[in-house]
Amino acid sequence: MGIVNINKLDISYESTKVVDQLDLHIDNGEFLVLLGPSGCGKSTLLNAIGGLIDTSGGSISFDGKDVTWTDPKDRGIGMVFQSYALYPTMSVEKNMSFGLRIAGVDKAIIEKKVQWAAKLLQLEPLLDRKPAALSGGQRQRVAIGRALVRDADIYLFDEPLSNLDAKLRAELRLEIKKLHNTLNSTMIYVTHDQIEALTLADRIAVMKDGIIQQLDTPHNVYNKPSNLFVATFLGSPAMNCVEGELEVKTDSVHFHAGKLSVDVTNYGFTQTIKTGQKITLGVRPEHIEMTSVKDESLNQFSGCIELVEPMGSDSLLWSKLDTGHQLSHRTNSDETTVAGDNVSITIDATKCSLFDSITTERL
């Protein structure tokens, strides 16, 4: 089993509070990603779960057993860090088996576990090599294998792919996903890379200033961000945000920002709204479409393309609308658009996010 419960956790460094009254439940076999900018407390939280730092308050339990003050070696966890931390004079096999040999595990069991992990991570041909003869991706697989041979119920990953190039990151991301599907162990993964978070996680905990801002599935975190911070942190390119106010009528609701007016009647408000309420409208670039059909009933606007950024499968366009607002939107890379072209766009109001400008919370 690998159920993790964190209750009212506080972590402080002198007078600076890094984690503040944090509650978190992680199910057995779940892949949870802690996502956030540098300094948000995600690695500190992971280190507390691993027992590498002391807490200031609250508790951590595994499968109902309080481990808040238990030594790391007695928590039954496997850890993989950003730094490979391999012994340069030892072979791959020796690096992977080092912890088991120190613990006095039987040689036959050690050999069986190393062979199992090596096969799982495609390291069998490399067992006799030393770290200097390995690529960065291979070294990180050795570090993962070293954690796997512990046969743990909970594995902790602290930005394990940050030192790799883009191609290797993509390859190892796939390997870690396959690994989780094979082992079905609980995995807690720290990253600031939203692509890693969205592709790997069962749930994402987005953190800021030691507080979880949203804990949800990748789909919901991306499409229904709980506040403006989450909305703007996730997404590349970032969500378009326009500040304005609401006009609430008996049969319609409109968002107004100067000459920009968007019909948001079918948004699905979950709380009371009123005319004049200060609102920030957020819309992702993929929810803005270019159109050649004029239809005043749609949320349609005219403008001029200022910049085109080719991105391979599609292109990112930056357009200045006649309303004076600049919006980014995507189009197929086969579209022959250049800066200076006139453009007509439609905003999909059903995919928009509306936030209270004062509280920054989602409406």
From TrEMBL:
Q: Which domain of life is it from?
A: Bacteria
Return the CDD domains for the record. Answer: ABC_MalK_N (cd03301)
ABC transporter domain mapped to chain residues: 1-234
Q: Which PROSITE patterns match?
A: ABC_TRANSPORTER_1 (PS00211), ABC_TRANSPORTER_2 (PS50893)
List, alphabetically, the SMART domains matched. AAA
GO BP field: carbohydrate transport
Cited SUPFAM superfamilies: MOP-like, P-loop containing nucleoside triphosphate hydrolases
CC per GO annotation: ATP-binding cassette (ABC) transporter complex, substrate-binding subunit-containing
Tagged with keyword Iron-sulfur? no
What protein name does the entry list? ABC transporter ATP-binding protein
Q: Does the keyword Transport apply?
A: yes
- Recorded GO MF terms: ABC-type transporter activity; ATP binding; ATP hydrolysis activity
Key words of the record: ATP-binding, Nucleotide-binding, Transport
Family annotation (PANTHER family)? ABC TRANSPORTER ATP-BINDING PROTEIN, MALTODEXTRIN IMPORT ATP-BINDING PROTEIN MSMX
One Pfam match, given by its short name, reads OB_MalK
